[in-house]
Amino acid sequence: MIVCEENLKILVIGTGAIGACYGGALHKDGNDVVFLARGENLNVIKSKGLMIKSVKLGDFHIKPRVTDVLTGEWKADLILYCVKSFHNENAIPLLLPAIYENTRILTLQNGLGSGDLLAKEYGKHRVLLGAAYIDAKLREPGIAEELGGPFKIVFGHEDNQKINSVLEVKNILKSANIEVELSEDILLALWSKLTLICALSGMSCITRGSAYEILTNPKTLDLSWRIMKEVGAVARAKGVSLTDDMIDKIMNQFKENMHASSSSMYLDLISGNPLEVNVLNGVVVDYGREVGISTPINEFITYCLSIQDDRAKNT
After folding, report:
1. DSSP string of 152-181?
2. What does the pLDDT look like over 55-97, one tens digit per residue?
3. In a domain, 33, yes or no
């Protein structure tokens, strides 16, 4: 295990399952972690602390600092951006009081686009793009569960720079027993994850089926392949080298993990929450139009799920 000589001041925005588990691991390792939370989750963590039930790390309880507003007295060396995409408009301005000249922002949001939004607001030099590989859920306010499988973050700068601050982030994550990969091509890594999630989340929401049911039914398996191939075609047209061989490997990974795979977008669907479809299947459709690539299956999914998304946002 790597032991860092100096711990960091870390802000976690979005204390759902992912933010709680990664932030909890970093707090447990001795970093000065502040959680930005809201609602009942905020109230429970304030009064009782945060309980992490983890297959990888073992169960542990922490009493971290948690707030719903930053005053500017405390500055973050690193911000883990873990909010859902439909909260971006409100969440991104909340970071400002914690930012100083050396702050880095690591976005772990699903899909594509959060890095551009953060760069527009705070500068591209601050933003690290990341993909979270974790099976976790927020069981109830103040209690997060990490359910086994990968406990990993793949990240990097869009320009693939390996400057000291990027290496420092890698070491901090490793020291907290988070498997970490500093990507040589972070855009390829993000498009690879997008390929998997578009199939898993899109098909789960449309069929209301499990990954196992989707992949063992020849008709829905075929649709899953078509989703992935559409993503690959758009990625290549955008200059990302997501080859057919890579798509095959992603599908094999999907099949190998089909008994354990679950979709957070499907959980949002059945809970009546807004959906991240616009930064998943929807972004494939949008980019496809830009580059002249037809994406009929991703378009069908996006259009159908827009009804539930609009309904949830308007309630």
Report:
1. EEEEE-TT----HHHHHHHHHHHHTT-EEE
2. 999 999 999 999 999 998 999 999 999 999 999 999 999 999 9
3. yes
